[in-house]
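Ticket closed. Logging final result for WDR60 protein.
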Amino acid sequence: SDGSIRLHQMTSEYPLMQWNDSTKGQPIIALQWALTRPAVFFALDASSNIYIWNLLENDLLPVAKQTIPSEKVVTMTLLGEPEKANGLLGIVLAKESGQIDIQYVKKKWALP
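Final structure:
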């Protein structure tokens, strides 16, 4: 609810890493690991900002931020085929109006 993200290992109650105020205080409403690249994850905040984290490139801050300006995004999920090496990775955005939007991610964050 405060924009903090914690990375846990299943065998410990303490986080391996923690990023406080990663969204400038906006609640995170969705977070998902990339299906095609293990060190990349995506976070959606309550202000319709999508943050892309690549832990191999930068483990302190997101490597990119994209604002969806048209209307509020209420949730997101990722689509892709991890067993294929084509690097196709998409973000499915559900908007407040009920509209669904699919955007494809740049290859540099999607290729295995």
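The CA atoms of residues 72 and 96 lie 6 Å apart. No further action required.
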